[in-house]
Amino acid sequence: MSERENRVITSLDPAEYHGIERLSSTGCKMLLRSPLHYRTWRASPRVATPAMQFGSAVHTLVFEPDTFASRVVAMPADAPTRQSNAGKDWHANFRQQHDGKIVLSADDYERCRLTAAAVIRSYGFSRLIQRGHVETSLLWRDPATEVLCKARTDWFSDDASVIVDLKTTTDASRETFMKQLWNMRYDIQAAFYMEALQRAAGALPHSFVWAAVESEPPFGVAWYRMGLAELEVARADIENAMHLYAECTRFNTWDSGYPTEVQEIRLPPWARRRQNEAPIQEF
User: Fold this and answer.
1) Which domain holds residue 182?
2) Phi-psi region of 196 (alpha: psi -120 to 50; beta: other; left: phi over 0)
C-alpha cells in the first residue's frame, strides 16, 4: 500500500489549466439533467453531510491507515451536551482544537473502524488491492471538445489496469446496489474515470470495480465490476454532456432544457403492471 499521495497526473502544461473551470463526472451528471442545474450546483457551497464525512473516514482507514489518526478524531463518550452554555463552549473548543479533521461521535468512530475492517478482510481486498495509487487527481482535455476535465480516483493499480472505488451503503446486495448505481449514475463515474486514466496516464484500464460495504452490522461487503455494454452507454452520455458543456460555455446560455409547453403524463410500464396486479377490494 502506498503512502498518502496528493499528486496530479496530467500531460498538460500548468498554464493550460490554471484558473480554468474543470468538468467532473458529477458535473456531467448535472449537465445531463440540465445546464441550469449544473450552473446552480457549481455556484452552491459544498457542505459535507454526516454520511459523507463517515464515508471519507472509512475510505481513509481502508486506503490510507497511516494518516487516519491525523485526519479523523472521535468525540469523547463523556462529552457534555450542547444544552448549556458551558457545553456549547466545550464543543466549540473541541472543534477548534481539531480544525480540519473529521469529527465522529464515539459510536460512529467504532462503526467506522468495524466498517473498514470488513472491507480489509474481504476476499476482494486481498485479491485486488496490492500496489497502487491512492487519491490521485487526473487532468486532461477532451480531444473532441477541448473541455478541461478532472477526476480524482480512490485507488488504481500500478499498471493502471484496475480502478477501485469504495462506497458505503445501507445495503450491499446486488439488486439494491444496482438500483443505487442507476439512480446515482455511478456508471458515468466509472466511464469518466477510465477515460481520465487513459488520457492522463496513457493506459486504458480494463476494469472499474466498486467495493460496496454496509455501514451497519453485519457490515457485509460485496465487489462489483461495471459491465462493458453499460460502459459504452455511459460513454455516450458523457460525450453528450461534453458537447453540451462546450456549447453552453461558448454562448453563455444555461437554460433548464425543460419543454415550455404543457405535456401529457402517462404511467410508465412498471406502474401499469402494478395497477393490474393490485388486488380487487370487495366492500
Assistant:
1) 8-46+106-254
2) alpha
Looking at beta carbons, which pairs linking 115-121 to residues 24 or more positions away fall under 8 Å?
A: 115/58, 115/168, 115/213, 115/214, 115/215, 115/219, 116/58, 116/61, 116/62, 117/219, 118/213, 118/214, 118/219, 118/220, 118/221, 119/58, 119/62, 119/166, 119/211, 119/213, 119/221, 120/62
Q: What is the CATH number of the domain that holds 174?
A: 3.90.320.10
Least-confidence region, from 36-50, 163-177, 208-222: 36-50
pLDDT, residue 274, reads 67
Per-residue cell: 42: 457549481
85-133: pLDDT as tens digits:
888 889 889 888 988 899 999 999 999 999 999 999 999 998 888 889 9
